[in-house]
Amino acid sequence: MSEEKCCVVTCDLPLDKTYWDNQYQANATGWDLGEVSPPIKTYIDTIENKDAKILIPGCGNTYEAEYLLQKGFTNVTVIDIAPTLVENLKHKFVENTNIRVVLGDFFEHAGNYDCIIEQTFFCALPPRMRQRYVWKMHQLLTDHGKLIGLLFNREFEVGPPFGGNLKEYEQLFQKAFVFNSISLAKNSVPARENTELFIELQKNHPNQVNLYHFEGITCSGCMNTVSGKFLEIDGVLSVSMNTDFSEILIVSKTEVALKTLQKIVSYDEKYKILKIN
Question: Domain named HMA: which ranges (predicted)?
Answer without folding.
Answer: 215-266
